[in-house]
Amino acid sequence: MAKSYRELDVWQCAIEMSVALYRLTRDFPREEVYGLTSQLRRAGVSVASNIAEGYGRSSRGEYRSFLGMARGSAMEIQTQLVIAHELGFGDPAKIGDVTG
User: CA dihedral defined by 78, 9, 56, 16, rounded to 10 degrees?
Assistant: First the structure.
């Protein structure tokens, strides 16, 4: 097992995704600051945070539970990116950076 959650490839990818989401949403319309912009950013941060928090828990079951929450947030991001794309928000290349 990794000595730290920071060594986990999945955590590192989640950090990259979160940064890509922040970059993507910079270009969203100003009126979306409390809508999709906020939702995407919070969900992105949640993925990496839940992986880290779960790693720090005392049991395997708790770890799995937090990984499940991280997965749910990742699905939330996918759904919100579809909506953003349909609305014409954001640079399609930057959306590709998020979905990798």
Answer: -50
